[in-house]
Write a structure and sequence with these properties.
Two copies of one chain form a homodimer. Chain A is α+β, with helices and mostly antiparallel strands and about 800 residues long. The first copy, chain A, folds into three domains: about 150 residues, no CATH class; about 325 residues, Alpha/Beta hydrolase fold, catalytic domain (Rossmann fold), CATH 3.40.50.1820; about 220 residues, Galactose-binding domain-like (Jelly Rolls), CATH 2.60.120.260. Chain A contains 21 helices and 32 strands. In chain A, a hairpin with a 6-residue loop joins strand 25 and strand 26. In chain A, helix 9 runs antiparallel to helix 14 and helix 20 packs across helix 21. The two termini of chain A are about 25 Å apart. At the A-B interface, helix 3 and helix 15 of A face helix 3 and helix 15 of B.
Chain lengths: ~800, ~800
């Protein structure tokens, strides 16, 4: 176990005393006879399971103070408290086991190894004990939560539930703590009236919102709102999605000018809105178990109201699913407008009873991963007031880059044949309410048909349909502070989706990015990393407006190491300037100096029938054949084995001079880390089912962490890119292509942040059909690559 | 989706009215103008999310009454209610989707296909609507819970939380319903004083018990207790277990008389017990999140108190882990003795404050799987009063058959090298309390060492150590009714563990067994099977003593089909008499008539070095090589392809005449279902994470179901057995064995309940080393099998 905490904020001694007093660890006036008595006092309070002296004594009797002295014996002795004793006991409180996890007789070394913060005062007096105890409460246990959160999950904070609302929230080390009774959370439903009519029924589309807010809001406490827009959370139509999935075994066509419609019929403004007949502070509808994000569950008992909305085209809302259109963004924003007092909502769709978000302090954050984070990004690009920050995880910033790439139809990794229409149908959860669906069916099917034309799988080019779904065009409008999270192995929502946002956010805002070794996953339950604490610090700063130095203490970039488990590094930016490196192609090598003479290498994209079928069924088989065997359908270039560990950062760029044997063609490329080693498993392991208590008798999460694979593998793909040779200038403009005539193409591969271990080789694979992502025509096209006109560039390459 | 419900109990019309009234679906005096009005009343109450007419109307407006009429339009019409309309709406309430899951215009056929119970009254008057509505509430939704439980999870029953304790519990269709407020559950810890001193400190071993009981017990309600004894639930020492795991790559030895100690030093009775200094009704220690069984979670809000105890040798208890010894059984029983008023407990280990289970009605059940179920079985064999029933899942009934077999050291499938000592160390969670462990360490290590001798991995024979751990010797004592559950693919705790109990329980008790297609898993969250309801019906009968016909309506045997998904069949017994079949061995065939002439076939157990290493590392590779290729190390015999589907039931028996080329040897056998087909996946799939609400705002479970594998496989092992050729009479007696001399051995294979599909073949594999389970000496032993003296018998073989 290695601990990585970035969210512990510097606190003065006086402030520590004040905070310890407020949560009950110190009486308001305290006089302890000596430092051991103070320490004993702290220990006794660390067993929230009982206040009875006999039970607490049993707890203390179980703790070792030294290798062979129990705490009660030490307390009775005349021995003074030492650093060793303080931390031998502290580590047991943090759930570490003597001998197994740490050496009681070499405690400092053990703590350094686990990366636990600690103090080494020259004297253990009451001042230093208070400092050390405070730090200990901020320190993570063996199971991925701070000791304070561990105590919280065992009931330590319940006495504070009954504090007057005016004395809430309470912050500890710059973070809001769980003093809000989960059994008193108010669950309520409202219907926000948008200014849209996407189902073309003249009526303004209503948006169902599910809200959880602290019971204390009824006692005049105003709280910020954490809002998650999730098109999935009222249910999905998976069978429909499967049925619409496109055949991808179709040939690429030569492109000429596009003649068909590239957008859908515009929506008009609603002509009918609901007339307010009454106002109320009480909703009349509740909900039982929302599809929740466990990060929000963590926040819900820490004083943040949580709002979920699925948006237009979902169950119990109006409108249609449009897959990322400006209307969906407007619907997303409408909820924030209501939360901040700028839009109407009603307790039901019909009788005109209006309800305000009177309990909201006007500050809103958005959270969520994938489509959810996408809508957070979309909302932020409108510059809407009141949206103070977004925590956008694995989010799409341009739908073109999700379903297309450089003039090609492109699948999100693992979802061959998916497209905007498939996702629209899958998330059109109005279908789940049978009679509602019956009424909207023809209108939605008409829209779906229009989408299918406009999204244009024929040319794969960028057009009006995709421009309308490109949030990056509006990044300059962003006023919310931004915390991005993305998996360095996310082949579904690819890394350029985050990198483009990162690079182009206005510098008037505060921004942070966390890059982890997962694929398309959440990271809030990792043992090695304090993500939930970081989010708490961040939101306490942005929404409660507490000056906790969140902007200053959190690194701009945190990147998880891909060689060493449970290791997270801080950086100032994704790239660092002045450290770019170019590799030239020669024979089968990537070399440092250019070669003057033209050197041609060829490959042919066609597979024998059976091989083609096998590769389609199992892209992993195609991938390993390509990466590991010499074959006719790809070219492979490698560096020599590295003498130093290399850290490769930024967006690699491939320049290639190529000729296709026909009037159309594509080029794909992959960057490969070659070297036999045990790499991280693709998915984190569950260390403990329900191992994380998000509050006391509240919801739970599974404690997770990456482990090394049990077997060594010879390679790993670290980046890739694809281009249609008729889109050499950009994805919109069609360039001509003549058979066997060389053209120069230049395109970005997916951004990287990758440690190449000593003795490994960097590899570059060049090929055409990508069985996992591109369409698969299996045409007999021969490609010639002129190595002298081809090169690979990585913006930052560092030796370590 | 196919629904299988066995727990709906016949109820009179008057009783239905009384129950519907009690849960709030009918007012105590009701007069509806007509049947449609009554139906509308029921529908309106089926939206517990709101009592507001406008919100409820929105809910009704979403329901289709016919293919193209919404419910409100139908209600306003003069059309009468029909079977079709009732069930089109009903299926929507059950979360089925029109067109996707059922055909609104062919509703009867759809319901038959899904196996939903329904009524077809000639007239839909108020009487039949009440009957049909009642049945509907008992019917499972698409997501594996009754409609009533679905409504419960959405808050329907919360108004009943505040009923006076005297009016609780409430039963619906013979089952206790969730009217106990989960936020009012009392969590308390007591320390039961056993009459054991297994840690040899003179003091009676104390046993920590964690109890959840309804808040209503404080209001004079007495409730039954559901008790789970789990040695795991205070934590485990996995690293220690790994470290103790035995090397299994050791040769079998010739056995002569055993000379060493075959039992551990006896424990003596404690000389010191706690003196009661005070009594209390209030515990002084609580707990936060116990390691719970979700079936118990389901029961906890239905009025059953839940008790967990880890027993001797676990964290915060006294004593040592003994892996199944009589002392562990006594410790297990001690908790029941306290629950039934026959033993003392204290609020803490030191000050003598005694506490009674004053809230318990004196009726106790035990639940749990694997080691947990094992201890339930162990407890039942003591015949202890007050233990009314055990629900024993995948339980061990003789530890010899868990770690040994017919004179051989044998691994539980997947756990090569595990033995009683390993499990004792793993579960000795006193180690997790460092100072406590420090005090007990030498005593436990001494015991562990004695175990390691007495369990005897040298001969693998049955001895005093194992006799002490054989609960079957006491099955005649059982007075509790027994519900057994076992996976037909459980290679960990094997099927004979359940079959032996099933066959030898006294016929004075009521017994049931459920055989499912899982391996070593829980089955309480399956979509297709009403296990939780069955348990509720069973426990309501046994613990609340409600005459709900549980014994009569539940089939003696329920066996899940291995060919058809989501299909569960009732049977009267495991076997059926008079249908046994014997196969004789000839050439490579299993044939129906004996062959007179001796026919010898030989195989050699030794593998080339690399193959041996590979097979050790990957037993699956050994298994497929053996089952599918002709090889030197096994013999294979197959029937012809079946013309009818065969149902094979009971304990197969293999008679074999064999000679080993040396003075020791073993014979292993497997029964194989040969035939290329898509079989069930080994593990069920999670259909919906947290898809099952076990109460309202209470704990959750993941909805699961088996799916078919995506690929066809050529075979599946359905049974197996192993014997040491020196244990031809029994596991205790050593028979002589002379090289190359033929001996007759006869041994049982694991019990089966298996459908052999048409066109498949039954196969018998005979070999020696089982890489997954036996020790692996890789000796150059040649075995000769005389086919004329060998035959296979299956007790029940049925054609269908």
């Amino acid at each position: 176990m290695k601990n990585n905490q970035f969210s512990i904020t510097p606190t003065t001694h006086q402030q520590k005393i004040a905070e310890l007093t407020r949560i009950g660890f110190l009486p308001s006036e305290f006089h302890f006879a000596n430092s051991k008595e103070l320490w004993q006092h702290f220990l006794q309070l660390s067993y929230p399971e009982s206040g009875n002296p006999a039970n607490v004594s049993q707890f203390l009797a179980g703790l070792l103070a030294t290798q062979d002295t129990a705490v009660p014996d030490f307390l009775e002795s005349y021995e003074p408290l030492t650093t060793e004793i303080f931390y031998v006991v502290a580590l047991q409180l943090l759930q570490f086991e003597p001998e197994l996890d740490f050496k009681p007789n070499d405690i400092i070394q053990s703590m350094k190894k686990i990366q636990l913060p600690f103090l080494m005062p020259t004297k253990w007096d009451q001042t230093t004990i208070i400092d050390a105890w405070y730090l200990l409460l901020c320190t993570h246990t063996k199971n991925g939560q701070t000791l304070l959160d561990n105590l919280t999950g065992r009931g330590f904070l319940t006495p504070l539930y009954d504090l007057p609302a005016a004395q809430k929230p309470i912050f500890f080390n710059g973070k809001s703590i769980a003093i809000f009774d989960p059994t008193k959370l108010i669950h309520e439903v409202v219907y926000v009236e948008s200014s849209l009519d996407t189902d073309r029924d003249q009526q303004a589309d209503l948006l169902k919102v599910e809200i959880l807010r602290p019971g204390d809001t009824n006692g005049h406490l105003k709280v910020p709102a954490v809002y998650t827009a999730s098109p999935y959370n009222q249910g999905t139509n998976n069978a429909w999605g499967d049925q619409l999935t496109h055949n991808v075994n179709v040939p690429l066509a030569h492109k000429s000018a596009t003649t068909f419609q590239t957008n859908t019929t515009p929506f008009t403004a609603p002509t009918k809105t609901i007339t307010t007949t009454a106002t109320t502070k009480q909703a009349t509808e509740t909900f039982s178990r929302e599809a929740s994000y466990t990060l929000n569950d963590y926040l819900a008992v820490r004083g943040f109201a949580i709002a979920y909305a699925a948006g237009i085209g979902t169950k119990n809302s109006g409108g249609m699913q449009t897959c990322g259109s400006p209307e969906q963004t407007k619907a997303t924003v409408a909820v924030t407008e209501w939360l901040t007092g700028k839009r109407k909502a009603f307790t039901n769709p019909t009788d005109g009873t209006q309800i305000k978000a009177w309990w909201c302090n006007g500050n809103v954050a958005m959270t969520g991963r994938s489509y959810l984070g996408t809508l957070a990004t979309a909302a932020a690009t409108t510059g809407i007031a009141g949206l103070k920050t977004i925590i956008s995880e694995a989010a799409i910033s341009s739908w073109y880059d999700y379903y297309r790439e450089n003039g090609l139809v492109m699948a999100p990794g693992g979802f061959q044949g998916e497209d905007a229409d498939v996702l629209a149908a899958e998330t059109f959860s109005r279908k789940l309410t049978a009679a509602d669906y019956h009424s909207i069916k023809p209108v939605f099917h008409q829209y779906l048909h229009e989408m299918q034309v406009a999204m244009d799988r024929q040319t794969g080019s960028y057009n009006d349909f995709w421009r309308a779904r490109n949030y990056r065009l509006n990044l300059a409008n962003v006023t919310a502070d931004v915390l991005l999270v993305h998996g360095l192995n996310d082949w579904n929502v690819k890394l350029n989706q985050a990198k483009e946002v990162w690079d182009h956010l206005p510098n008037t805002i505060s921004k942070k990015i966390i890059l982890h070794q997962g694929h398309h996953i959440y990271i809030n339950a990792f043992r090695s990393f304090d993500f939930s604490d970081i989010v708490n610090l961040w939101l306490t700063n942005k929404l409660w407006e507490v000056a906790n130095q969140a902007d200053e203490i959190l690194p701009a970039v945190i990147a998880q190491d891909n060689i060493n488990l449970e290791t997270w590094h801080p950086f100032d930016n994704w790239e660092e300037s002045g450290q770019q490196q170019t590799w030239f192609l020669h024979d089968k090598s990537l070399i440092n100096a250019p070669q003057k003479n033209a050197q041609l290498q060829t490959f042919n994209d066609q597979q024998p029938n059976q091989t083609f079928t096998d590769f389609c069924r199992q892209p992993a088989q195609w991938q390993s054949t390509m990466a590991l065997t010499s074959n006719q359908f790809s070219l492979c270039f490698k560096t020599g084995t590295t003498k130093d560990e290399l850290l490769l950062r930024g967006t690699p760029m491939l320049q290639i001079r190529v000729a296709s044997s026909t009037d159309h063609g594509l080029i794909s490329a992959q960057l490969v880390d070659y070297g036999m080693t045990k790499r991280f498993n693709e998915a984190p392991s569950i260390l403990q089912r329900n191992g994380i208590q998000l509050g006391f008798n509240w919801r739970e999460d599974d404690l997770r962490e990456f482990k090394l694979a049990t077997r060594a593998t010879p390679y790993k793909i670290i980046s890739y890119g694809h281009i249609n040779l008729q889109n050499r200038h950009n994805a919109q403009q069609t360039d001509n292509l003549v058979a066997n005539q060389f053209v120069d193409a230049q395109f970005d591969l997916q951004p990287i942040f990758h440690h190449l271990a000593i003795g490994h080789q960097l590899g570059l694979l060049i090929f055409a059909t990508d069985f996992g992502m591109t369409q698969r025509g299996n045409e007999p096209i021969t490609y010639q690559v002129d190595l002298s006109g081809s090169q690979l560039l990585i913006p930052t390459v560092q030796r370590s």
